[in-house]
Write a structure and sequence with these properties.
Layout lengths: L1 H6 L6 H22 L3 H6 L6 H33 L1 H19 L5 H14 L2 H12 L5 H30 L3 H20 L15 H6 L4 H19 L5 H9 L5 H30 L1 H21 L3 H15 L2 H12 L5 H29 L2 H27 L1
Helix pairs in contact: 2-7, 2-8, 2-9, 4-5, 4-6, 4-17, 5-6, 5-7, 5-9, 7-8, 7-17, 8-13, 8-16, 11-16, 11-17, 11-18, 12-13, 13-14, 13-15, 14-15, 14-16, 14-18, 17-18
C-alpha cells in the first residue's frame, strides 16, 4: 500500500491547473484585502454615523457575504459533486467580478450591504479551487499542496492592503473595487481556458446521502472537530479585520496616511503566513496535520495577549506578523485532515460544509468584533478572540485523544 501511494502519479495538466488556480486564489485574496480593510472608512464617507453605528454597519458589511454563503454552500457542494469544481470556480469568479465592481458604485451603506450579500451567495472560488486541486493531487503531497495553495490567498492578503491603502489614499475608496472587479474577470477567463479537471460526473440519483457517507469515515468526530476549527479560526481572523482601520485611527487619529498604515497592519499576518507556509506544509507531511494544528492554536492563543495590550500600530503590526508565522498551518492542517479522511465522491459536499462553517465563522467573527468594539473597546476584541482560540485548542486535543483511544 505504501509503495502504491509513493508512486501515485500526477494527472496530465496538473502543473498548469495548479498554477492557474494558485493565481486565481491570489487574485481573489488580493481583491478581497484591497477593499475590505477600508470598507468602514468607505462607509464613513457615505453618511454621518455615530461610533456604534459605524462599527455596526462595518460588521454587517463584512457579515452579509458570509451569511448568504453559509446558506447556499451545501447546494453548491452537491452541484460540485455532479458537475465538477471547475464550474463552481467559474460561477464564483464571474459573479464576483460583477458584484465587486458594482459595490464601487454604491451611494449608500445599504447598497454596499446588499451587494455583499449577493456576492456571498455566489462566492467560493478559493474553496472550490482548493477542492479541485486536492482531488487531482496524490495523497503523498496533500500537505504541501494545501499549504502552497494557502500561500496564494495569504500572498494576496499581503499585497492587497498595501495596494488598496495606497490607491485609497491617492484616488479614493471606490477605485480598488473597480480594479478588483476587472481582476476577477481575468480570473474567470484564465480558469475557463487553462484549467483541465479530470472529473467523472456523478448522477444525482447515485449520490449517497451525507449521513451514509459520514458513516464510512472511521473517525468522523475528527471531521466534526475540523468543521468547528474552521469556524473558530475564521472567526478569529474576521473579528479583527473589520475594526483594524478603526483601531489604527483610534491610536493615531486622522493621519494623512491612515489607510496605508492600516493596510500595513492588516497585511502583516499575510507576510508571516507567506514566509512560513511552505516549510509548515513539508513539516505537516512528516509529522501529521493534527500536531501542526495543535501547536499553531497554542501559539496563536498566546499572541493575542500582547496584541490586546499594545497602543502602537508598529507593535500591533509586529505581533500580527508573528501571528501569521504561527498560524500558517491552521487552515491547511484542517483541510488536509479532510482530504485524507473523506471519500472522494463526497469531496464537494464535505468542502461545501466546511465552507459553510468558514462562512459562519466570518459572520460570528465580524459581528463579534464590531459589537464588542462598539460596546466596550478595541482591545476587548483581542482578549475575546484569544479565548475562543483556546477553546478550539481544547476541542482538538480532546477529540484527538478520544480518536486515539
Amino acid at each position: 500500500m505504501s509503495q502504491i501511494a509513493t508512486d501515485e502519479p500526477f494527472p496530465a495538466g496538473w502543473r498548469r491547473a495548479f498554477i492557474v488556480l494558485w493565481l486565481g486564489c491570489f487574485i481573489t485574496g488580493m481583491g478581497y484585502s484591497m477593499t475590505m480593510p477600508f470598507i468602514s472608512l468607505f462607509i464613513n464617507e457615505l453618511g454621518t454615523f455615530t461610533h456604534f453605528q459605524l462599527n455596526l454597519f462595518s460588521g454587517l458589511a463584512f457579515a452579509m457575504t458570509f451569511i448568504s454563503q453559509a446558506l447556499v454552500s451545501p447546494f453548491w457542494g452537491s452541484l460540485a459533486d455532479t458537475k465538477g469544481r471547475k464550474l463552481m470556480c467559474l460561477r464564483a469568479s464571474g459573479v464576483m467580478a460583477i458584484t465587486i465592481f458594482v459595490t464601487g458604485l454604491a451611494t449608500n451603506v445599504w447598497m454596499i450591504i446588499f451587494m455583499r450579500f449577493l456576492q456571498g451567495a455566489f462566492s467560493g472560488y478559493i474553496n472550490n479551487a482548493t477542492a479541485l486541486i486536492a482531488g487531482e493531487t496524490p495523497h503523498r503531497k496533500s500537505g504541501w499542496v494545501m499549504s502552497t495553495m494557502m500561500t496564494a490567498g495569504v500572498s494576496g492578503n499581503l499585497v492587497g492592503p498595501l495596494l488598496g491603502g495606497a490607491l485609497s489614499d491617492w484616488y479614493g475608496y471606490r477605485i480598488p473595487f473597480f480594479i478588483t472587479g476587472g481582476l476577477m474577470l481575468l480570473t474567470f477567463l484564465l480558469t475557463l481556458t487553462l484549467v483541465e479537471e479530470h472529473f467523472t460526473p456523478i448522477q444525482p440519483t447515485e449520490l449517497k446521502p451525507m449521513r451514509e457517507l459520514l458513516n464510512l469515515i472511521p473517525n468522523v468526530k475528527l471531521i466534526y472537530a475540523m468543521f468547528v476549527t474552521t469556524l473558530i479560526v475564521q472567526a478569529s481572523v474576521m473579528s479583527i479585520d473589520p475594526i483594524v482601520s478603526l483601531y489604527v485611527r483610534d491610536m493615531i487619529g486622522n493621519h494623512h496616511n491612515l489607510a496605508l498604515i492600516a493596510g500595513i497592519v492588516a497585511a502583516a499576518p499575510g507576510l508571516g503566513n507567506l514566509l512560513s507556509a511552505s516549510k509548515v506544509g513539508h513539516l505537516m507531511d512528516h509529522v501529521g496535520p493534527e500536531r501542526i494544528l495543535q501547536l499553531g492554536l497554542a501559539i496563536a492563543t498566546l499572541l493575542f495577549i500582547p496584541m490586546a495590550l499594545t497602543h502602537s500600530p508598529a507593535w500591533l503590526a509586529g505581533w500580527r506578523f508573528i501571528l501569521g508565522l504561527a498560524s500558517a498551518g491552521l487552515m491547511p492542517a484542517a483541510q488536509t485532515i479532510l482530504t485524507l479522511d473523506v471519500p472522494h465522491e463526497a469531496f464537494g459536499r464535505i468542502f461545501s460544509y466546511n465552507q459553510s462553517f468558514q462562512a459562519a465563522g466570518s459572520v460570528l467573527g465580524s459581528l463579534m468584533g464590531s459589537l464588542v468594539s462598539g460596546l466596550f473597546s478595541y482591545p476587548a476584541v483581542f482578549w475575546l478572540t484569544g479565548a475562543t482560540l483556546l477553546i478550539n485548542l481544547l476541542i482538538v486535543m480532546v477529540t484527538r485523544t478520544r480518536t486515539a483511544k
